[in-house]
């Protein structure tokens, strides 16, 4: 379970999140929607421990993630929390395969089974042919798919995605969403996605709408 | 335009540490370059001042000569022969034994009334000398004053040729007298002391002022050649040795050789300074070119963007350069103090400042230019492979040529060969290191540790992967390679100089030397039970195109240090020549060689070649009618004191001086020690600057890559893991750079050695002999 309690965040004096509280149960597929600048990316960044709130708490299974030490957060990132960034954040000096394997290596779980799993995911999202290339040699859509596979590679308990299909065509978008749905259903992973698309949001079981830093729905 | 400047200043302001580091880099580079150049000029000045101190305004020097019977000369005879066309000063070498501690010092006696006619002697402290105090006055050097704790007016008790005497210190000079002597006194004082033991001296009276060397300052009305002609025809001076001082000023082997060492060391410092500056500005240029590309895509004109990039770089140069020049003033003084200069004070010149500023300007402009050209719209990659190949061909051709040429051409081509090797290093080191690390990465993958499985290999694996891709790291490797090559080259030059000097110092294998010996003295001492006594002749001569060497002769090869590998003495007209002379003149055994000794030619036949490490020839003095000018004494174990007493007693009666061989050598090597000290100071400066420059470069490159490492953190890398990756990268840069540097230092040293051969200097031989000594 993920609990957000009274989260507040400001940038340069401007309030982006105003006392946001919400609860996401294990295994839920939640879509967060809102206009540009409404605070949705800030919200999920805080939920993913990439950004600290000015006040409030985020509890993952009852543990305040901002009370954890740096090592514990690192462990969380490579074992139980997969995050897909809006701008992909692939490591430019490593090829795609190395990027996909990186969290597993850091978690000391990069065995043959894990490699095969990653290859399967890559096959599903049609980036198998790109594994030997550097991120700078990929298109935006390919980078996005690689980022998704990287996040899925650790079989996370919680998966947070920031605009996971923004760079994809309709057909690929459908494939990605089907994959996420499958992972949510069969592995019980909690999926939280930020999206502008109603079609994409519909894949989730719940939609949270955010406006001017507050949850309205 | 205003917006673009706003962007630039905001970019600078966002990371204020970067401009600071860049200004600091320029400042330090300029400081080290300007200080090295200033030291180089100061050494030249010191050398000239030294020679001036040694010879004063003399045009001609007259010494005992190889075939002369008489050991002493009179200055008044020169006056009588040449009249008003010259001023002559005679000096008498002697050795004083200090009453406390028994230390002996090399001293010079002269007519203190007239010594100023040729020599410019300056005192930092002076009491004044009257006619009454003349024979009790002594002038000492600052070095001796500090060693003995003496001040002006203090007493100094000594033994002159066995006779005890007390003197008063009436003058202290910062430099040694005539460049060599710690003590100067009036010849009358020496004669007065000797008159007590010599009836001959007593009978000659107080105006008898014998000299072992005469220094003649000729007027414009007579040339050195004419003077030699007049004197040679006089019975008092026939058989004497005449040396044209201009010849000494223009060709001094030892200082030419060490000058080469200093010049190369300074050149390497300048090169390293430029490389460090390039490496640091590389990072800035990389960032700015990327930013400018985005702005150009948004519609900014490339010309404007490029101008701004150059402008920013020039700004850092304009701020850093004056600071560097200012800092080089105290830095140069510090260098001078460390070297121990006696005459010259390192003073920053306009030329030195301009060169330092210009070199750094070229370096910073080159960085920006490389990026603008290669990362513009056409995205050209610098064709490092083709450029490396061209540099390789050029290096190979020049390298081969250095072996094929002689003389000045060899020196020039040798230096060009070194420069081409450095260029090859700079161009090819990224290629070499990428290849090695790619092989390592492949091996790591093959060895079952695929994709970094296992805790320990993960930082190594990702560090290696990063190294393959990140050009900033290749640049760091290139810098390390250059630094290592420069350090090895400079280190080798310094060691070789030490070897060269020590060979000169330890050429003769003995404990004591008797100067101005007589046959009678030799006769008395040859039967000594306290050690062995050998007759030795040692004198500088010239050969070839004004090259100087040492002519040696001795009773037995035991007179020479075993390191010189002299197995037997020559006989007849044969000579044992050094390998450097053989190479210089392409001689074989049986060939003839002409040596100019004391103005007269000596025709030798090459009988054998020895690796003496110094340019020298050993001859049969009897065959050539050359008298020995020194007795070399080796005391048997435990009988040093007894030997010394025996020597002192015999020498006193023969007006000969006894001195420890080490003291004798020391009096001749002050200038050489300055050169060696300067070489060490430059080496130390290079190490210091290399360390600072490398640390600068590494810290700047990691600051710029902070975001890259943040990406690792976002997917779960701990700080420790990231530290491991960074450490792997640093170690790879350092180790691969060191490997490439060592690889390139070998042909560089060979090229330097060939260039040095034109100056009669064999680097490898000198280093070998140093370790043997």
Ends apart, CA distance between termini of chain B: 70 Å
End-to-end C-alpha gap of chain A: 19 Å
Radius of gyration of chain A: 17 Å
Number of helices of chain B: 24
Structure explained in plain terms:
The complex is a heterodimer of chains A (217) and B (773). Chain A has a six-stranded mixed β-sheet with strand order 6-7-8-3-9-10, with helices on both faces. Chain A has a single domain (2-215), classed as P-loop containing nucleotide triphosphate hydrolases (Rossmann fold, 3-Layer(aba) Sandwich). Chain A has helices spanning 40-47, 70-79, 96-106, 112-124, 140-152, 170-187, 198-201, and strands at residues 2-11, 14-24, 29-33, 55-60, 63-64, 81-84, 158-162, 190-194, 206-211, 214-215. In chain A, a hairpin with a 2-residue loop joins strand 9 (206-211) and strand 10. Helix content of chain A is 35%, strand content 26%. Chain A has seven helices and ten strands. In chain A, helix 3 (96-106) runs parallel beside helix 5. Chain A is globular and about 45 Å long. By secondary structure, chain B is an alpha+beta fold. Chain B has three domains: 2-49 and 252-501 and 671-772, no CATH class; 69-238, no CATH class; 517-655, no CATH class. A six-stranded mixed barrel of chain B has the order 3-4-9-6-8-7, surrounded by four helices. Chain B has a six-stranded mixed beta barrel with strand order 14-15-19-16-18-17. A two-stranded antiparallel sheet of chain B has the order 2-10. The longest helix of chain B is centred in the middle third of the chain and has 45 residues, at 253-297. Chain B is elongated, with a radius of gyration of 32 Å. Chain A binds chain B through residues 50, 70-71, 74-79, 83, 85, 89-94, 97-98, 101-103, 105-108, 110-111, 115, 134, 150, and chain B through 451-455, 458, 461-462, 465-466, 468-470, 708, 711-721.
